[in-house]
Amino acid sequence: MNPYDDKTIADAFWEFESGLMSILVGLLPSITARKPIAARTKVAEAFEAYYRAGGVQKASALAKNRYQAEIDNNVPLEDIARYEVGGSIAVLVNTAPAAFWTLLLIYLHPGLLDDIRKEIDACTETSTVDGLTEVLRYRSMGTSVWEVMEDTYLDQWLLKKGAMLQMPSRIIHQDVGLWGADVTDFNPRRFLPEEKQNRPRDACFRAFGGGKTLCPGRHFATNEILAAVAVFVARLDMKPVDREWKLPTTANTNVAAVVMEPDDDIQVEIKTRQGFKDVKWAINLNKSDKIFAMVTEDSNETEL
Questions:
Q1: Would you give the DSSP letter of residue 189?
Q2: Which of 257, 138, 110 lies closest to 205, judged by CA?
Q3: Angle formed by the axes of helices 7-18 and 77-88, to 10°?
Q4: Burial 193-230, CB ≥16 within 10 A → b, else e
Q5: How far apart are CA 51 and CA 37, in angstroms?
Q6: Res 130 pLDDT > 70
C-alpha cells in the first residue's frame, strides 16, 4: 500500500522536489510554482488515503512509531500526511544519493573494496564510517540558513539584524586552505583517527549542518547508509557494463538538495560474491548505546 508504488505519485514527488526552491524563495509561489505545489498536494493526499486505509499497520517500525507519536500529540491526519512528504526529502533526496556515492566510490578506488571487505568479514569494530564522512565532504552541498538576531560585525562586514545568513557547506568542504592540496580528491582515509593532524578541526565538516540547524536524523541516516553498504559489499560483486568506472556529472542537482544527485544512471552488472552463492543471510538489528560521532556537536557523546 506504499503510496510510492503508484508511479504517478512517485513522479509527483519528483515534480515537487525539482521545484522546491521556487516554492521556498520564489516570488508569489502560488502563481509561479503551481506545478510543484500541485504535485506536493497530490502526494500528501495519497499519504492521507494511505493512513485512512490503515496502510501504516504494515509499514516499518520507524513509520509506525512516527505515526503513533504524531497521533499521541493530536496532530491532524492531514498534517501527518504533509509531514510525510517533507520526510521523504530526507529519505529519498539525501540518503539514497549518499548511499549511491558511497558504493560507487568504494568500487571505483582500487584496494578500498578489499580493505572494507576485510573489516566487514572479520565482524570487528570498523572505521568504515570515516569513509562515509569523506563521501559526504566530497559530494554534499547543503546550506545552513541563519537569522541575524542583532547587528553584528565580522571583520569589516556588517550583518544587519533580521537578515538571513546562508552558509554553503560546499564552499567550506572545497577550501584548499582548510583541507590541503588534495581537497578535490576523494581520500577515503582522510577522516581516520591517525589523519587528524592533516585535516582541519571537526567544525569544518558541515554535511549535517551545525548548531541549531544540525540534522536531528544524522545518526539514523548514518546507520541506514552503512548497513545497506556493508550488506551490499559483503554479499555482492559489481562492475560497470562499459568496463570502466566513471564519475557521473552532477550539474542538474536541485539546489535545495543536501547531497549531489547523478545526472545519469550508471549501467552495472551485479552478481553474488564468489564463495557466497549458497550462503543464507540473516540480518539482525540490535540496540546499542554507542553512536557515530559524525560532527563536532557529538563530541560530548559516546564515540564509537
A1: T
A2: 138
A3: 70
A4: eeeeeebeebebbbbbbbeeebbeebbebbebbbebbb
A5: 21
A6: no
Burial class from Cβ neighbours inside 10 Å (0-12, 13-18, 19+) for residue 241 reads exposed
- Torsion, Cα 26 29 33 35, to 10 degrees, reads 150
**In the chain, count of helices (H) and strands (E)?**
12, 6
Contacts of 221 (CB under 8 A, 6+ apart): 90, 94, 95, 98, 215
pTM: 0.78
Describe the crossing of helices 218-235 and 128-139 by its angle, rounded to 10 degrees: 110
Given the DSSP bridges, would you call strands 152-154 and 157-159 parallel, antiparallel or unpaired?
Answer: antiparallel
* Cell numbers representing residue 300 in the block: 560530548
- For 147-163, the pLDDT digits (tens) are 899 999 999 999 999 99
